[in-house]
Fold Transcriptional regulator, GntR family.
Amino acid sequence: MAVQTWETPMPAKAKWAQIADGIRAQIESGDLAPGDKLPSTSELCRQHDVSAIVVRQAINALKIEGLVEGVGGVGVFVAER
């Protein structure tokens, strides 16, 4: 009798984490340099077809990592390293 195995698929990565990964990759590659302004929340929502909450989660993760910093009423910028 053959033994049958079942592969459990990996759960999809959360959308906010995918967005954060994409922005992080742009920063690490130099496509986004220190001082560069990130697209607005509404623009990121349109680009990724997600709600503002999802974009804010991605930005907050990058803030915690020290990769970006927010300037009230102005926007989010790539942090100086």
